[in-house]
Design a protein that fits this description.
This protein is mostly beta strands and 378 residues long. The chain has a 35-stranded mixed beta sheet that branches. It has one helix at 2-21, and strands spanning 22-23, 27-32, 38-44, 47-53, 57-64, 68-78, 81-88, 96-103, 107-112, 117-119, 127-131, 136-142, 145-149, 154-160, 163-167, 172-178, 182-186, 191-196, 200-204, 209-214, 218-222, 227-232, 236-240, 245-250, 253-258, 263-276, 281-287, 292-297, 302-306, 312-319, 331-333, 339-342, 349-355, 360-367, 371-375. The radius of gyration is 30 Å and the shape is elongated. It is built from 1 helix and 35 strands.
Length: 378
């Protein structure tokens, strides 16, 4: 009798596996959220869509327009964690979507080996999202956010928390981050950032960087594109191997370096370290007390605007100027010079300008170009 019971149970178990293995109808799982705080969803492969509601339960539905085969399915609640793990057979196409409805106040850990991840409304908790071959989109998150995609774009905004974004092959767009730092890296795309209330670090290995407003310090590095910043309330670091650098405003130390482009720095309060091997430099500088600044180009012109009230010593060096020509053709200043020397043999020109007794030190060095110093009436 026991043998018959075992055989019957085994037959029913095999029938259940077959029902799951060959599927075109939705799979639906529902969990109570009482004492639960963490939802972990792993799909291989497929898309994930998350929306929130006011019910004290989580509903997970797997839908597909065509038949698919399930290799592995785990659906359970253990203590404070709810886990849903779905793996399709290797030959199944990436055509399923997992729709999740959950309370907004939750920690979400969403992973897929091949699909997009979309969060459609508000979340109050930490969000972790990772996909090996798709895009990630989300808005309105009160909590820290970690996002990784190995082959897609990341787009998010209205976040109150710390941000960590990594894309191995796409663009990153970020809007409106409050109460947290933002760390962004992409290996093959552009970075666009709206406002970040704290510090920002943005690195791309193959694209441009555009940043609107940073409430703290900002660091932007590109290995093959332009960098544009609007307003930085703290210090700013801008480095690129092959593009232009533009900064509209900063209230701290500024480092701007490019191997092949122009540098445009406006409304800077503090000090500047700027260098380019193939472009012009324009800077508006109100130097901080006893600071040191350096502007250097190997092939281009330098223009500096400085307030007449600034206490500074400006040293200018122009190399490879044409010999036996008027030195004022290569160095023009709205301030009188205390030293102006021309080397007739090398064609180098050196000049010094002392403003209001001196103080902060500013060095302007260029080759094959000209230097102009203007009064900046802010």
């Amino acid at each position: 009798m026991k043998t018959k019971t075992f055989i019957i149970s085994a037959i029913f178990l095999m029938m259940n596996i077959m029902i799951i293995a060959q599927h075109s109808e939705p799979i639906v799982k529902t969990f109570s959220t009482v004492n639960a705080t963490n939802l972990q969803v792993s799909i291989s492969p497929g898309n994930i869509t998350l929306s929130t509601w006011n019910k004290n339960e989580i509903r997970i539905e797997v839908i597909s327009k065509s038949e698919y085969e399930v290799k592995h399915l785990v659906s359970k609640k253990t203590n404070s964690k709810i886990k849903f793990d779905l793996e399709l057979e290797c030959c199944s196409k990436n055509n399923i979507t997992v729709n999740i409805k959950a309370p907004s106040k939750f920690r979400f850990d969403l992973q897929t080996t091949g699909g997009n991840i979309n969060i459609t409304n508000n979340i109050s908790g930490k969000l972790v999202a990772e996909t090996e071959g798709g895009n990630v989109n989300f808005y309105n998150v009160k909590g820290n956010v970690d996002v990784i995609t190995h082959g897609g774009n990341i787009k998010g905004g209205n976040i109150e928390g710390k941000i960590n974004f990594l894309s191995h092959g796409g663009n990153i767009d970020l809007e409106n981050v409050k109460n947290g730092e933002a760390n962004i890296v992409t290996h093959g795309g552009n970075i666009n950032v709206g406002s970040v209330s704290s510090n920002l670090s943005a690195v791309t290995h193959g694209g441009h960087i555009n940043i609107s407003d940073v409430g703290g310090n900002a660091k932007a590095v590109s290995y093959g594109g332009h960098i544009n910043m609007e307003k930085v309330s703290g210090s700013a670091i801008m480095e690129t191997n092959g593009g232009h650098l533009n900064l509209r405003s900063a209230s701290g130390n500024v480092v701007a370096k490019t191997l092949g482009g122009h540098i445009n720095l406006q409304n800077i309060t503090g000090n500047i370290i700027a260098s380019t091997h193939g472009g012009n430099i324009y800077a508006e500088l109100s130097p901080g007390k006893n600071t040191q600044s350096s502007l250097e180009t190997s092939s281009g012109n330098i223009e500096l605007k400085i307030p007449p009230s600034a206490e500074a010593s400006i040293n200018v060096s122009v190399e490879n100027a044409h010999r036996h020509e008027d030195g004022n053709k290569y160095i023009k200043s709205a301030f009188p010079s205390s030293r102006f020397n021309i080397d007739e043999d090398d064609g180098d020109i050196n000049a010094t300008y002392i403003l209001n007794g001196g103080g902060s030190k500013i060095s302007l060095n260029c080759s094959n170009g000209k230097v102009t110093i203007w009064k900046w009436n802010r």
